[in-house]
Amino acid sequence: MSDQMKWVSAVSKQPSLEAAIDEVSQRVLATLGQPPDLLLVFISSAFSSEYARLMPLLRDRLPARAMAGCGGSGVVGNLDPQQVEEVEDDPALCVMAARLPNVTIHTFHLDREALPDLDGPPQPWIEAIGADPATNPNFLVFADPGLVQMNDLLQGLDYAYPGSVTVGGLASGDSFRESKQLFADYQAYRSGAVGVALSGDMVIEPIVAQGCRPIGQPLWVTECERNIVMQVSIQMDQDTIADKPQAPLKALRQLIEELSDKDRELAQYSLFVGLARDAFRQTLEPGDFLIRNLLGVDPSGGAIAIGDRIRRGQRIQFHLRDADTSAEDLRALLERYLRDRPSEQPDPIGALMFACVGRGQGLYNKANFDSCLLQKYLGLMPVAGFFCNGEIGPVGGTTFIHGYTSVFALFRPKA
């Protein structure tokens, strides 16, 4: 028996739940030759009335040492080893299964009432999750979109498990509030969050494609309060900052005047603010910004409101988003991944994709865009995932919830 890590993805578009489970189970077992160590399950909301039947049927046909997953408005998976499909409108079931020798797998479910206090010590978080920080685990997390403490959960994971990678998404679909759309160890849950902690001979490498491109120059925040920016200084180049602060709205108006007609029109409805996460990186590239909504402006005072807290000395930059920009952003991040990875590092052999419901065909007017671009750059591999109501991934070493984003988790053995 091979002791190498192996991943397999299988998607079925059979309209019958039983037939879909049979189809993916046969393909998984034929590929792995035995029940998987880890099973990840993503099922489209077209099956929401049958979510309660999914777990017992799946346990009988495809038992695994550990399993987790959720429902989504659409799913992503392999129709065959050569073809990945993003199924957005039709009934579909996708599973990602793996043999993971020398990998410790721990699953968990957290109720919204069970989250510890962020002001306390990390030990209550460790007890709630159940994974040993000494093993340096990484996390896959799937959550109820109504979990208002989601930011607290992600901060708690970063707090209790420093250096960990956490990726995942919020369940989606028209009927998510009426259905038990979270799954862990063949149990279904309606609320909270489920997750998998993975440690040992495996690495998760994240790619967070927020679909935006910067315009203008970075601005240094010189006066702010919570999420309100009152004054900025323009960064002329990486060594020079303008002496005289100004209102950010004034800087924005000047910037818009310099844009092309196309970008000026785009700025009317698709303007965002990027927050630089690394205070020491001199040259900022795609992936260095956390993209947040521009919530409003004060025409009289010139202040702007951003959908996140700001601190003095932080760099911000205005961004635009559209289909072409989203494609360019993902290409740039994939090229950066290939450029920066050591040549002796093993190649990724499986990937998860957590894409916003606002991407897919609705954004690109083309099917399977993000998943095909991934394989164009990184080669054929099993890919699975779902369309999310919020995507989970790290920027600058801190985990956030994103929107209009595709988050990829690349799996490879340790070097």
Largest sheet: 6 strands, mixed
End-to-end C-alpha gap: 22 Å
Q: Which structural class is indicated by helix and strand composition?
A: alpha+beta
Residue runs with pLDDT of under 50 for 5 or more positions: none
The value of Rg in angstroms is 22 Å
Strand numbers in spatial order across the main sheet: 1-6-2-3-10-11
- Arithmetic mean of pLDDT: 92
Q: Quick one: how many beta strands?
A: 26
Percent range of helical residues: 10-25%
As a percent range, the share of strand residues is 35-45%
Q: So how many helices?
A: 9
Shape, per Cα inertia axes: globular
Fold and architecture overview:
With 415 residues, this protein is of the alpha+beta class. It has 9 helices and 26 strands. It has helices at residues 17-32, 51-61, 123-129, 150-160, 248-258, 261-266, 323-340, 360-364, 369-378, and strands at 6-12, 38-44, 66-72, 75-80, 83-87, 93-99, 103-110, 138-143, 166-170, 182-184, 187-189, 193-200, 203-209, 213-214, 219-225, 228-237, 240-241, 271-276, 289-297, 304-306, 315-320, 350-356, 383-388, 391-395, 398-402, 406-412. The strands form 4 sheets. It has a 6-stranded mixed sheet with strand order 1-6-2-3-10-11, with helices on one face. Strands 5-4-23-22-26-13 form a 6-stranded mixed sheet, covered by helices on one side. A 6-stranded mixed sheet has the order 7-12-8-9-24-25, covered by helices on one side. A hairpin with a 2-residue loop joins strand 24 and strand 25. Helix 7 (323-340) packs parallel to helix 9. The radius of gyration is 22 Å and the shape is globular. Keywords: Cell membrane, Membrane, Transmembrane, Transmembrane helix. It holds the Pfam family FIST_C. Residues 35-236 form the FIST domain.
